[in-house]
Predict the structure of Peptidoglycan-associated lipoprotein.
Amino acid sequence: MRNGCRKAMAVAALAALAACAQPVPPPAPADPYAGTGNVARYTGTIRQGDLPGTVTAADFVRTAGDTVLFPENDAALDGTARATLTRQADWLKKNGSFSSVVEGHSDEKGTREYNLALGARRAGAVQEYLVAQGVDAGRIRTSSYGKERPAEVCSTPECQIKNRRAVTIVKPGAGV
């Protein structure tokens, strides 16, 4: 019994000592600016690019351009239009979380039905080009407004050029 009492007292003493022991403090972090004086200056390199979550539809308009123009009564893509669409495709491939709607428009010449069909052909030409450049077809929807939403209300040939267009509108969301 005496032995049992001693063992119990020894265990209690060890438990009391363990409870009083101080935890080992974590090592102090190394100061990367030690030895630089009073100034903390970053000397590494920063990779170019956009911060995650900072890409917007306005970036698309600014960097790729959202509008391509067409000849009168035609849905053919000239070199300027193809260059713009290549930039659009690159932007869309880089920013896979965005989807797009291509709106086809026309000038005021012709009937409503003719211009709706022409706007649809223009939007389709843009969609087809973007898909050929590697953009997933499921991310591009088309619509036609014909002559219903002109960029400019005018009747001069120089001004009507602005209405023969397709506008690509992007929005967050991968699917259409």
The helical segments are 2-20, 57-63, 79-94, 112-132, 157-160. The longest helix spans residues 112-132. The CA atoms of residues 16 and 70 lie 87 Å apart.
